[in-house]
Amino acid sequence: MALVKIIYASMTGNTEEISEIIESTVQEAGFDVVREECSEVDVDFFDDADACVIATYTYGDGELPFEFEDFYDELEEKDLAGKIFGVVGSGDREYGDLFCKSAHDFVDALQKSGAKKVAETVEIENNAEEEDIEQLKKFVQELTANL
């Protein structure tokens, strides 16, 4: 059975809730899943994963969450060739072009590590509403179709 690993950072609880929705949708699709908060793991978390998922918020002026900084720095040096991934971001549209910037930074880092993006990046303003949940279900479908 393919293993999907989800790592998340959440300040307000929005991104944690988003990661829980992804986790339950992956389980409903019949795949094994492990979900962890980013301060609990290091970059080796993805070593045995078939699919890697990052759920992150964007802090301040387009900054990575401080608790994700070390993971991010190590990720660019990690070899994840042969793995697939998807990224989900939460943020506030008041920040304009910086909305969900951290999610896009993680896409770049994962691609540098050799992983293949197979799901469209989902951007959610604050907490997940009904239409966002539908996007997350589609995200999981795209991801698991490649397993």
Describe the protein:
This is Flavodoxin. One of its GO terms (molecular function) is FMN binding. Belongs to the flavodoxin family. Keywords: Coiled coil, Electron transport, Flavoprotein, FMN, Transport. It comes from Enterococcus caccae ATCC BAA-1240. With 147 residues, this protein is of the alpha/beta class. It has one domain: Rossmann fold (3-Layer(aba) Sandwich). Helix content is 33%, strand content 22%. The chain contains four helices and six strands, in the order βαββαβαββα. It has helices at 14-28, 69-75, 101-112, 130-144; strands at 3-8, 32-37, 51-57, 84-91, 116-117, 122-125. Strands 1, 2, 3, 4, 5 and 6 form a six-stranded parallel β-sheet that branches. β1 (3-8), α1 and β2 form a beta-alpha-beta unit. α1 (14-28) packs across α4 (130-144). The longest helix has 15 residues, at 14-28. The radius of gyration is 14 Å and the shape is globular. The termini are close together. 40% of the residues are buried. The mean pLDDT is 97.
Descriptive key words:
33% helix, six-stranded parallel sheet, globular, Rossmann fold, 147 residues, 22% strand, alpha/beta, 4 helices
